[in-house]
Amino acid sequence: IIYSDGRNVWNGKGQKINTTSLYGNSSAINSALIVPAPGEPGRYTIFSGYSGVGALYYTKFDMRTAPGKQVGNPIKINSSLRYGEGQAITQRKDGQGFWHVSGYLNKLYIATLTKNGLSKTKVVTLGGNYVSEAHGPIGFSHDGKYLVTSRGYLYSNQQVVRYNFNTETGTISN
Fold this sequence. Notes:
Blueprint (H helix, E strand, L loop, with lengths): L1 E3 L4 E3 L20 E5 L6 E7 L6 E7 L6 E9 L9 E5 L6 E7 L2 E8 L2 E2 L3 E4 L9 E6 L5 E8 L2 E10 L6 E2 L1
Antiparallel strand pairs: 1-2, 3-4, 4-5, 5-6, 7-8, 8-9, 9-10, 9-11, 12-13, 13-14, 14-15
């Protein structure tokens, strides 16, 4: 078992195991999401996001022969895109990986993580009026069929929107 606040990673004994700091922030809405690395038993991928607007990163950890050994340094995902701090993950329909979704303004950024690594991010432009540079929490239903986003800034102009999500293709629809 490993857990993270977006900057540090601990094992099930409460021992800090990362050698370099992740680029997340413990105050982010979803500071870290952890999933098994597809096709790599005993390895885990941690997606970390910075509080506010910035890039998302992912890092792999090996929990096999040297429990908690960090495999490489954090890798920035599409640094040219601007991400909000909300992010969510659901399993692909084929069970061979995961869909990762993040948002900023009226855009959602969707990538798939498989044994071949992280795919190129596709950008989906959403309808509606986005009134600020904030994109709040993002979440999936337990089966991944629905994606819920929250947008707005703090306590004003907030909206919650539910979309259909295709776990086979990563397509969003209403």
